[in-house]
Amino acid sequence: MKVYINPIIVLGPPRSGTSAVARVLHEKMGVSMGLKFKPDDPVTPEGHYEAEEINNINAAFHDCRITWHEWWERLLAYTLEMHKLEQPWGFKDPKCSVPDVLGYLICFYPDPIFIRCVRKREQVIKSLLTNFDMPQADAENIYNFNTQSLDRILPGKKFIELDMSERRTDEEIATAINSRVGFP
Hints:
Blueprint: E1 8-11, H1 18-28, H2 52-62, H3 68-83, E2 90-92, H4 99-108, E3 113-118, H5 121-132, H6 136-153, E4 159-163, H7 170-180
Parallel strand pairs: 1-2, 1-3, 3-4
Helix pairs in contact: 1-7, 2-3, 5-6
């Protein structure tokens, strides 16, 4: 049995292309991004490709509904379940860009592959304003918080940065990832 210990973790602020990258990994590249996904919605009609289990675990931890120990145990159980698939695996969860969750994920997984999606600041903010009808200041804060958190935590870690400012085809995304990672 081949065990893929370290996941591929897709990171980035909301509206930066993380769903497209997770979809390509899952549908085109044979990377299991989860067993059950958060449902589609009008904002992301092709799907979020966020594993509900990971979202629930990280949300409970981030919202202080479970302890660090409970988070660790649940993440371990999920990881062992993904290992049974005997294929590369990963996940995407907006909370992974939050410093406390990302910091603990780095402690939990010894050597993950991070894929960081970036998009021009004004594009992300415009998309947040358009799709979520939020005040300008809130959209700017969401972008800044997610981006600055990653800038502080990722140095020294292996990561692939994908600029999603321009529309990319599935093939372009897969080629960009495969040229830097390569999958068995």
